[in-house]
TrEMBL record:
Stored PROSITE patterns: CB, TYR_RECOMBINASE
One Pfam family linked to the record: Phage_integrase
CDD domains listed in its UniProt record: INT_ICEBs1_C_like (cd01189)
Comp. bias (Basic and acidic residues): 403-418
Cytoplasm listed as a keyword: no
This protein's name: Integrase
Domain Tyr recombinase: 179-381
Domain Core-binding (CB): 65-157
Keywords: DNA recombination, DNA-binding
Keyword presence, DNA-binding: yes
Location of the region described as Disordered in the Swiss-Prot/TrEMBL record: 390-424
Alphabetized SUPFAM superfamilies for the sequence: DNA breaking-rejoining enzymes
């Protein structure tokens, strides 16, 4: 080796010989040169690795050594997802807990497909950590965890920390077949509203059946309602995050929307507002007020202005459904009921999607529109009318029935003989 050779021979304190070089591998985040030092046992190995680094740097595929672990990278990645709602962020963090627990100590660059496969197997066999610990987790839950890990490792690839994403090589367990959502018919929905007509939260039950999310109903303020223009605007939600009720913005840009109110809702809200005024006077200083804009608390509160707890609202719905003797559905299924009934009444898909506050029409039609038994029967009748088979089949059935009726008479006459014919 000459003095100009970039690879230097070095002698360690124990007398052993090594070969070392310093090389630029790009720029750091702050713009400074990123120089790395590499040491190898033989000159041949050092030259091969130096040539490889130069070639990969030229192609933009070089990945410098990093000691960052899985447990260090995942929280950093999640912190960078600034547009996530707090509730969504919490769901992401929960789904990644098994990864940090089982694989967090492993350096990102040493994470293998086999290790991720083992994680998936463990979750499917005994990954439950809440409730019945040690029981299998649902395939949908495992799929969600694998998907979040894959997203986080995609980010590491973009940063140049990883060459490839091993999580993308792992087969997803998929999800269980989706159960057909339970929805009410128009008659059942009307029966429920008739049953709760005198309930203090009647207007809230109306809004739930009109397709608003639970958080949207309970986040509604009087300043969001224009009873003269007959509109309401969804701009605040009350949701549960980490066992705490928090105020948040709507789920997406399209979730913030202004909807018309029909006469039933306007009348229900006027009655509630009048009742609230009386309760406010009765409670006096003990009455709560949390909205500075309209000097009122949210629309749906108790007698002293205390906001309705979201879980209590869902529980109350179940109690009322049981008392009304109607098929039991979840509170969230009222949104599915709304979308389904609108669709069955030929409301355009784009309008249904906008009404429900969805990001796109395809999601609405795939997830929130369902079949109903009565609709299937009506569809069958429609096809019969279209194909012209209904009347023909009926006529054929009548003819066949006439033949069946006459044949026994003929046989009876032949058996009994002419002498019995007059008596018959």
């Amino acid at each position: 080796m000459s003095k100009s050779d970039p690879i230097k021979k070095v002698t360690l304190k124990n007398g052993k010989t090594r070969y070392r070089f310093v090389i630029d591998v790009g720029r750091k985040a702050d713009g400074r040169r990123d120089q790395r030092t590499y040491t190898y046992n033989t000159l041949k190995e050092a030259r091969e690795q130096r040539a490889k680094i130069i070639a990969e740097s030229a192609k933009g595929t070089f990945v410098a050594d990093s000691a960052k672990t899985v447990a260090e990278h995942l929280p950093e990645w999640l912190a960078g997802r600034r547009k996530l709602q707090e509730s969504t962020r919490t769901n992401y963090a929960n789904s990644l807990k098994p990864v940090i627990e089982r694989l967090g100590h492993i350096p990102l660059q040493k994470l293998t497909k086999t290790q991720v496969d083992d994680l998936v197997t463990w979750m499917l066999e005994s990954g439950r950590r809440v409730g019945k610990k040690g029981r299998p987790l649902a395939p949908a839950t495992v799929t969600l965890t694998l998907g979040r890990l894959a997203q986080a490792l995609d980010d590491a690839v973009k940063q140049g920390i990883l060459v490839r994403n091993v999580a993308r090589l792992v087969d997803s367990p998929g999800t269980a077949p989706q159960k057909e959502m339970s929805t009410w018919t128009a008659e059942q929905a009307a029966a429920f509203l008739a049953y709760v007509a005198e309930d203090r939260l009647f207007a809230a039950w109306c809004l739930s059946l009109y397709g608003l999310r639970r958080g949207e109903v309970l986040g509604l303020r009087w300043c969001d309602i224009d009873l003269e223009a007959k509109t309401l605007t969804v701009c605040v939600t009350r949701i549960i995050v980490k066992d705490q009720v928090v105020h948040s913005t709507p789920k997406s840009a399209r979730s913030k929307r202004t909807l018309p109110l029909d006469d039933t809702l306007v009348a229900a809200l006027r009655r509630l507002k009048s009742r609230r005024a009386q309760e406010r006077l009765k409670a006096g200083r003990d009455y709560r007020s949390s909205c500075q804009t309209c000097n009122e608390s949210h629309v749906f509160v108790d007698e002293v202005g205390e906001e309705v707890d979201p879980e209590s609202y869902s529980d109350r719905f179940e109690v009322l459904v049981r008392r009304a003797g109607l098929p039991l559905i979840r509170l969230h299924d009222t949104r599915h009921t709304c979308g389904t009934l609108m669709h069955l009444r030929n409301v355009p898909a784009a309008v249904i999607s906008a009404w429900l506050g969805h990001a796109n029409v395809a999601f609405t039609m795939k997830t929130y529109v369902h079949s109903q038994d009565e609709a299937l029967k009506a569809a069958g009748g429609t096809l019969g009318a279209v194909y012209g088979t209904t009347e023909k089949e009926t006529a054929a059935d009548d003819t066949e029935q006439d033949n069946v009726t006459r044949e026994p008479d003929v046989r009876k006459c032949e058996k009994n003989g002419p002498e019995n014919e007059s008596a018959a």
